[in-house]
Amino acid sequence: GFIKELPDLFKLSRFKDEIENMEGFGEKSYVNLIEACENARTTTLARFLYALGIAGVGSANAKILARFFDEDYEKIKGAGFDEISEAEGFGGVLAMAVSSYFSDEKKLKEADGLYKELNIQAPVQNTEKSENISGKTFVITGSVYHFSNRSELKEYIEERGGKVSGSVSAKTDYLINNDVTSTSGKNKKAKELGVKIISEEDFLNL
DNA sequence: CCTAGAATATCACTGTAACT
DNA sequence: AGTTACAGTGATATTCTAGG
Fold first, then answer.
1. Looking at the structure, do residues A48 and A116 belong to the same domain, yes or no?
2. Which nucleotides of B are covered by protein (CB under 7 A)?
3. Both A113 and A163 in a single domain?
4. Protein residue closest to B14, using CA and C1'
5. Domain limits at A141?
6. Residues A47 and A116 in one domain
7. Same structural domain for residues A151 and A170?
8. Which nucleotide is nearest to A55 (CA to C1')?
9. Are A43 and A118 in contact, with CB atoms under 8 Å apart?
């Protein structure tokens, strides 16, 4: 009962004592919970859109939407079916999902309430433009060593104008893989299609 | 205060279904 | 044909509470 609508996620400290006394909880879990919620306040428009849970709008499509509408939440809210269809990769199904979400009174109210609690930041862009990375598509497989996890490497690439996708295709420029002997589906496909397979070191040298 | 055992969270990775 | 979202799996890491 602590969370009745989305914005309540950011008001949990009102229930400090109750939360700490719940089974399986203690002071530490309470503090972690509050810290996690506070960290989540600072986010990008794309992450916010992703979080709304609109069918078909995951992390990748949310980024496209945010960019297409100039990182402006008001523009997205006001956009109709036709306008949304013009965004790259958005056809009838996705445009309908998005436009009907924002024309639903209840959902709109919830989204607005959540938006008010947030501290939206502009996405980090092209901190260090790199010609070898910008405009290229990468796929990462296996573990990484120079970054704490794959998401960090993904962010690193995207900040420099590159793209990271989940599956190898003819449009993929590089497959990043430290395990040369790997026989994963991604490696096989990369070999089939003649996609360059590089190690993390090779990537950093780019 | 410290430790052990248990529970839970996180991570990398797959496969499937559905969309453009 | 190419992409993406999403659910599920097994392994590993983290972190809790209870009890000495």
1. yes
2. 7-8, 11-15, 18-20
3. no
4. A185
5. 137-204
6. yes
7. yes
8. C5
9. yes
* Strongest mean pLDDT among A40-44, A57-61, A180-184, A191-195: A40-44
Do A151 and A103 have their domain in common? no
- CATH at A84: 1.10.150.20
What pTM does this model have? 0.72
Q: Which nucleotide is nearest to A170 (CA to C1')?
A: C2
Do residue A57 and residue A29 come from a single domain?
A: no
* Residue appearing with tokens 């919970």: A33
CA A74 to chain centre: 20
Q: pLDDT, tens digit, for every residue of A150-186?
A: 666 777 777 676 777 766 666 677 777 766 555 556 6
The separation, in Å, between residue A24 CA and nucleotide B8 C1' comes to: 10
Are A121 and A42 in contact by the 8 Å Cβ rule? The answer is yes
Distances in Å between the Cα of A33 and the Cα atoms of A36, A85, A119, A181, A197 are 5, 39, 18, 41, 41
